[in-house]
């Protein structure tokens, strides 16, 4: 990528991260209330900070990942968190704050997804079979991928008819929604 393209892409990412140029009302609300929640605290932040104090050697960015996941779970009214085995500690700790059950999905078997689920693809993660990701997307499950592999990113980026795809440097969030046209925004998480 040339320096000029890099600067332009960074400008668009910054612009969309503030809500500028985001035309869908749902996407605008999601960017403003979830991706960039502002300086105000959220009711679960104190529990997240407490969890991080208990753990030793936690990377500093994990706190922000947990806070973002908490806002996603709350905003989308998620009923169940699905992740591949083993479930990462930060995922289970964040879901526990909202009393949402976490289910481990064995990447060797078929899994029955429900509306209201979120599929978390953590990093580092073993390669998730394509069928499981496609099944989740077809069922209308939200997909949250941290540092997705090239194959995972290709599967998630396949155009869907309806929904929202937010991409950043190391994250992808796909939210299938029947009542909205497909939109794809590059944001800074």
Report on the architecture of this protein.
The protein has 189 residues and is α/β, with parallel strands linked by helices. The protein has seven helices and seven strands, in the order ααααβαββαβαβββ. Strands 2-1-3-4-6-5-7 form a seven-stranded mixed beta sheet. Strand 1 (80-84), helix 5 and strand 2 form a beta-alpha-beta unit. The longest helix is centred in the N-terminal third of the chain and has 15 residues, at 3-17. The two termini are 21 Å apart.
Summarize the structure.
This protein is α/β, with parallel strands linked by helices and 189 residues long. It is built from 7 helices and 7 strands.
What's the layout of helices and strands?
Blueprint: H1 3-17, H2 25-35, H3 45-54, H4 61-75, E1 80-84, H5 89-97, E2 102-105, E3 117-121, H6 130-139, E4 142-146, H7 150-157, E5 164-167, E6 171-175, E7 183-186
Parallel strand pairs: 1-2, 1-3, 3-4, 5-7
Antiparallel strand pairs: 4-6, 5-6
Helix pairs in contact: 2-4, 3-4, 4-5, 6-7
Instruction: Look at the structure and give the mean pLDDT.
Output: 80
End-to-end separation: 21 Å
* Strand-residue proportion: 15-25%
Helical proportion?
A: 40-55%
């Amino acid at each position: 990528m040339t320096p000029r393209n890099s600067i332009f892409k960074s400008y668009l990412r910054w612009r969309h991260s503030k809500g500028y140029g985001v035309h869908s009302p749902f996407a605008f609300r999601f960017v403003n209330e979830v991706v960039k929640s502002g300086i105000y605290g959220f009711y679960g932040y104190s529990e997240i900070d407490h969890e991080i104090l208990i753990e030793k050697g936690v990377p500093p960015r994990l706190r922000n990942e947990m806070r973002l996941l908490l806002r996603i779970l709350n905003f989308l009214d998620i009923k169940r968190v699905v992740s591949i085995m083993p479930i990462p500690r930060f995922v289970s700790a964040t879901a526990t704050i909202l009393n949402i059950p976490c289910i481990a999905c064995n990447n060797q078997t078929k899994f029955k997804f429900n509306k209201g689920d979120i599929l978390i693809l953590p990093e580092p993660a073993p390669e998730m079979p394509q069928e499981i990701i496609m099944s989740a997307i077809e069922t209308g499950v939200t997909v949250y991928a941290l540092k997705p592999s090239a194959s995972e990113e290709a599967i998630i980026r396949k155009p869907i008819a309806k929904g929202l795809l937010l991409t950043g440097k190391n994250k992808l969030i796909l939210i299938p929604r029947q009542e909205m046209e497909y939109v794809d925004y590059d944001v800074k998480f």
